[in-house]
């Protein structure tokens, strides 16, 4: 077992505070990279977060960045930052295996939009991080950086674990249901799942509610990576992209926060509930009004509208991936996990009218979310229903096996397309649990200011 997690003491590597030394010539991106590689060498045999690394390319990029700092011309706030890329996204110099043996030889030799943007900003694309099978529920080999017998979460398993293990300051993930925020909660990350379409998904356009997100060891690094991507690749086609300034928004105390129960509230264990309620009490003492579903009829209506988020997202995902799974079955005659096969079976039972119904229910939830915009500055909830479960758990949600943790607090934010930021605020039984704030669409920068205020003002809790 690793040392128990203490949110008041844990300090993962960050990048923004290393940059002044680069500019003053006291250090440089190549030295920073080599420190990351030392940590990877020490921890990777147990954590198993990387699929592949391109060290020659990474060192060459770090050397080029070093020269730019020496000449006083860095390309961006993330010039020289080592970054991991979830292995669902294309990289021109490494294969994209997507967590499936069926894609073992898949090497598109192209960069996804966000990867291309990172390289353009001077970031050091170090390697590919483990994803669950096709970004769904069947796990890869990665373990939780705070306990090797627990899951890191999924599907952005490796991207979350490399932050929690202190290997790199930032990593890219994706989320359709809970694949950024839940593993970030389990691995003590700051992470953003931005407004739907805010960061260009490149080739990952097949799901109507998938998002590109960012894991990091600090809010500043999280924001810098997000905005530098947005500057260069924009949002998805037809979307305005991420709004906000180059720097992290100033800390912004919320006046009111709505506590969201969703489908997670009934599943919280006693220790997690107690830690979260203690945090809410601290927020109240700091002058923030806490609003619950029983306090306002529109909040109650919102809770009712999102009460079947898990089932809606399950059916949306199944229907939208049917054609690709059918192609794989036809091409390989099998090779899908039981979890992915169960999704295909759900899709085969769905009619077009079934799909029309679930997307109409999704639109109703989004409308209900819009109606509570005037009531509070943001929504708050745990980022997961508790700490990471053991690797050998038998979690099932809506007929689909979820051994990487149940997405009861995450499906709702994905179907809403709303910006969500998780903050590593709690420790339960020596493992991390995040707290998420959720905003209205296109308020990502202000939401980051609220997250910053909470992180800087409210004490972390351990139970």
Helix and strand content put the structural class at: alpha/beta
User: Over the alpha carbons, how many angstroms does the gyration radius reach?
Assistant: 21 Å
Strand content: 5-15%
Mean pLDDT: 97
In short:
With 463 residues, the chain is of the alpha/beta class. The chain is 39% helix and 14% strand.
What does this entry look like structurally?
- With 463 residues, this protein is α/β, with parallel strands linked by helices.
- The chain has helices at residues 19-24, 29-47, 55-70, 113-120, 157-164, 181-186, 219-233, 270-285, 297-305, 309-332, 338-349, 352-371, 411-416, 444-457, and strands at residues 50-53, 82-86, 124-129, 170-175, 190-193, 211-216, 256-259, 289-291, 378-382, 396-397, 400-401, 420-428, 431-438, 461-462.
- The strands form 2 sheets. Strands 1, 2, 3, 4, 5, 6, 7, 8, 9, 12, 13 and 14 form a 12-stranded mixed sheet that branches. A two-stranded antiparallel ribbon has the order 10-11.
- Strand 12 and strand 13 (431-438) form a beta hairpin.
- 57% of the residues are buried.
């Amino acid at each position: 077992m690793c040392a128990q997690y203490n949110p008041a003491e844990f300090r993962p590597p960050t990048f923004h505070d290393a940059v002044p030394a680069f500019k003053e010539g006291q250090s440089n991106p190549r030295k920073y990279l080599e420190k990351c590689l030392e940590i990877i060498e020490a921890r990777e045999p147990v954590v198993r977060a990387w699929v592949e690394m391109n060290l020659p390319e990474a060192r060459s990029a770090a050397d080029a960045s070093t020269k730019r700092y020496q000449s006083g011309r860095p390309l961006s706030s993330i010039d020289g930052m080592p970054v991991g890329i979830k292995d669902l996204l294309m990289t021109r110099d490494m294969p994209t295996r997507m967590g499936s043996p069926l894609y073992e030889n898949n090497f598109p030799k192209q960069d996804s939009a966000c990867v291309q943007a990172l390289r353009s900003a001077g970031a050091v694309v170090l390697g590919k991080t483990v994803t669950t099978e096709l970004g769904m529920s069947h796990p890869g080999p990665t373990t939780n950086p705070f306990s090797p017998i627990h899951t890191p979460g999924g599907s952005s398993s490796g991207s979350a674990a490399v932050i929690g293990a202190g290997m790199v300051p930032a990593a890219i993930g994706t989320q359709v249901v809970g694949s950024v925020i839940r593993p970030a909660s389990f691995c003590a990350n700051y992470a953003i799942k931005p407004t739907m379409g805010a960061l260009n998904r490149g080739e990952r356009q097949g799901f109507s509610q998938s998002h590109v997100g960012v894991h990091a060891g600090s809010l500043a690094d999280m924001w810098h990576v997000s905005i530098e991507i947005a500057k260069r690749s924009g949002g998805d086609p037809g979307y305005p992209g991420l709004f906000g300034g180059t720097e992290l928004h100033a800390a912004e105390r919320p006046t009111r926060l709505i506590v969201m129960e969703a489908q997670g509230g009934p599943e919280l264990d006693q220790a997690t509930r107690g830690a979260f309620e203690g945090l809410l009490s601290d927020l109240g003492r700091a002058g923030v009004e806490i609003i619950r579903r029983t306090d306002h009829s529109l909040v109650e209506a919102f809770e009712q509208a999102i009460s079947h988020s898990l089932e809606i997202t399950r059916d949306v995902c199944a229907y939208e991936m049917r054609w690709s799974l059918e192609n794989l079955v036809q091409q390989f005659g099998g090779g899908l996990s039981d979890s992915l096969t169960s999704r295909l079976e759900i899709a085969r039972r769905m009619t077009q009218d079934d799909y029309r119904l679930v997307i109409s229910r999704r639109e109703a939830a989004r409308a209900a979310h819009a109606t509570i915009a005037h009531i509070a500055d943001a929504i708050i909830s745990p980022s997961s229903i508790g700490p990471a479960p053991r690797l050998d758990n038998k979690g099932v949600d809506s007929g689909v096996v979820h051994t990487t943790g149940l997405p009861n607090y995450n499906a709702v934010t994905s179907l809403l397309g709303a910006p969500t930021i998780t903050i590593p605020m709690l420790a339960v039984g020596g493992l991390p649990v995040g707290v998420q704030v959720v905003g209205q669409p296109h308020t990502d920068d202000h939401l980051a200011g609220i997250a910053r205020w909470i992180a800087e003002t409210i004490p972390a809790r351990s139970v």
